[in-house]
């Protein structure tokens, strides 16, 4: 969905598992408040939230944000048009939502395991 000419303008996505909202804002060349707004408008965006409601985005989220950015800023779609365009591709993305939910559960279980494995003083 992103055109190759626009990919060159954005920095390469590092090989990390999770990204903070500030890192994603830099990687996608948008402000943090825009990302928060897009989370409300696009159901495809659902970053993992941990303690204190801190958002952690995964690589797939960053790619989706870049697609949204391209639709809105480069191709001139409205929010509604971008939603329709993304939802037309959503049928094949249903499994990715389940995968993300499973990843989130694994992360939460790993946090519980870390707490349980911490020695008591």
Low-confidence segments, given as residue ranges, are 1-5
Helix-residue proportion: 55-70%
Number of strands: 2
The fraction of residues assigned to DSSP E strands is under 5%
The span between the termini is: 53 Å
> Going across the major beta sheet, what is the strand order?
1-2
Secondary-structure class: mainly alpha
CATH class: Mainly Alpha
* Rg value: 16 Å
Q: What is the N-to-C succession of helices and strands?
A: HHHEEHHH
CATH fold category name: Multidrug-efflux Transporter Regulator, Chain: A, Domain 2
Overall pLDDT metric:
83
Protein name: MerR family transcriptional regulator
Domain HTH merR-type: 18-88
InterPro entries: DNA-bd_dom_put_sf (IPR009061), MerR-type_HTH_dom (IPR000551), MerR_fam (IPR047057)
Organism: Marinobacter panjinensis
